[in-house]
Amino acid sequence: MRPFPRVTAIVFLLTAVPSLLQFAYPALETNLRRDPALIADGQVWRLVTSSLVQDSGVAGTVSNLGFLLALGWLTERTVGPGRWLLFFGGGVALGQVGGMVFDTVGAGSSIGLCGLAGGAAIAAWTGRDPLAAAVGTLYALLVAAATVDALWCYVVAAVLAGLLISQRARVPGSAYTLVVLIVGVGLTIGADLHGTALLGGLAAGAVALRRRRPGRS
Length: 217
Hints:
The chain is mainly α. Helix content is about 75%, strand content about 0%. Helix 7 runs antiparallel to helix 10. The protein is globular and about 50 Å long.
């Protein structure tokens, strides 16, 4: 019997409660979101609280919470709770750096999810179950499609991700890392903080799951 994904459950509850409450109390999102000017003025807690509320409306909130459950559970099942936290934290940390550099006002758990996507991609590359990486790649592609916000982009993202998921037994593990890397670099060049978040997840995965060198125990 697989262990209960306690870290995913805890982070989900910590995120879901304020994310849903913000619809009854709209000021909650304003008071907790990332605002580079206010952070520079001393409100540094926003670097943490901005990941607990959503700025993308009902559809974005449902999507982020759904992926937090699905991708979170799959990733924790694949690499364990400690590495899960490292991946998620890497995405949040580098995502917030991107937000400050790009002067992006906003909120959402998407940067943490990008961290999980990046870390799960590296996990597949090192021989672990690729299902989490496939779902994480779907999320990364949907994030990229959202920057264009055209129907054909979502269709292309869904088809490509569907192939990666359905053919995951045949797809090389490195393919997930390559896709996430390309999306991460592209979004970063476009001054989108999700790009730096994806790169943060990849970096965290590389640190946590680095291959042992020959001759070392």
